[in-house]
Design a protein that fits this description.
The chain starts with a helix and ends in an 11-residue tail after the last helix. By secondary structure, it is mainly α. It contains twelve helices and no strands.
């Protein structure tokens, strides 16, 4: 029996890091998502600032509703991160094995990250759609996972699939930038390393946090208009009566979402909520990668123990 222990270790540590960051920052994520989902002219907006969402939860005594959909979001984050990091590590190892190279270049890194992202989205899209609808529901009126999805057709569970696949460029840019910066930072340490069967070299918590923040900030700025459209497509239907049924259906498509933003908010509408998105995603990704780097050695040891129990020969590590 042969298992890819290194990829399994990467996937486990990445999934745990994602679970921690999602839970810690979830109230901010809920405020951000509800703020992005509203598309109205400036003088008709319910939320003029992201802080208005938080104030609404406090004034209506629905503070706990800031956590509506947390369970579904945690499952989605854990599963998607596990699949993503396993696929990302596997495709990188496969490339190095086939080419005989010691390091993976930027182009190959982007391809590996994109392939992993597409595989992840195809599997977890219904979870992503459900969590977005639960977050954007009126405070105190959020429904459970199955009820949220059962209200629509099976195809509606995959709302935003096309733009989600397009947005695989976001983590692709992020993790490629992170990996390239990490390789440069650890190059000196790797050159002194002689034991090829030891645990992978890890960044310090501060270095991982900073590299994660910089890489995610760059990726978010480049892909934000698509992120805003995705939130609109997956958002729960509003009860404000300002949109007709035809308009709501049109907003479920990429072209319809783009047109609605342009007509109601103008060019700047494509970047509404950018600051909140950067704050949330940078903190989330930096926290995820910091936790992942700090538990990498522990998960590697755990994988070795499992490997010995299953009589699996530990694979030799290649330099990153």
């Amino acid at each position: 029996m042969q298992l890819d222990l290194e990829s399994l270790s990467e996937a486990t540590s990445g999934a745990i890091g994602s679970l921690v960051s999602t839970t810690v920052l979830y109230p901010l994520d809920t405020c951000k998502t509800k703020y992005q989902a509203e598309v109205q002219a400036h003088n008709q907006r319910k939320y003029r600032r992201i802080s208005d969402v938080l104030w609404e939860a406090i004034s209506t005594r629905q503070v706990l509703s800031l956590y509506q959909g947390l369970g579904t979001k945690n499952v989605q984050s854990f599963v998607s991160s596990f699949i993503y990091f396993y696929g990302y590590s596997y495709f990188k190892k496969l490339y190095l094995k086939k080419t005989g190279k010691k390091n993976i270049g930027t182009a190959a890194n982007l391809i590996a990250a994109t392939a992993s992202g597409v595989c992840t989205i195809l599997i977890t899209q219904p979870l992503d759609t459900a969590s977005s609808r639960m977050q954007t529901s009126e405070f105190g009126k959020s429904k459970g996972f199955w009820k949220t999805l059962s209200e629509g057709t099976w195809s509606e569970a995959f709302d935003g699939l096309g733009i989600s696949i397009l947005l695989t460029t976001n983590p692709s840019i992020q993790y490629t930038a992170f990996d390239q910066l990490k390789q440069r930072l650890l190059k000196g340490k790797m050159s002194k390393k002689t034991d090829t069967n030891s645990s992978p070299e890890a960044l310090s918590a501060f270095s991982a946090f900073m590299l994660g923040a910089v890489s995610k900030c760059a990726a978010t700025c480049l892909t934000y208009p698509a992120i805003r459209c995705k939130v609109m497509i997956q958002a729960a239907d509003s009860d404000d009566g300002k949109s007709t049924e035809a308009e709501r259906k049109a907003q479920r498509t990429i072209s319809g979402a783009l047109y609605t933003i342009w007509r109601r908010e103008g060019l700047l509408g494509f970047f509404k909520g950018l600051q909140a998105q950067i704050l949330k995603t940078v903190l989330s990704s930096a926290l995820l990668l910091m936790v992942k780097e700090k538990i990498t050695k522990s998960t590697w040891i755990l994988m070795l123990m499992i490997g010995r129990y299953l009589s699996v020969k530990p694979p030799k590590l290649k330099a990153a």
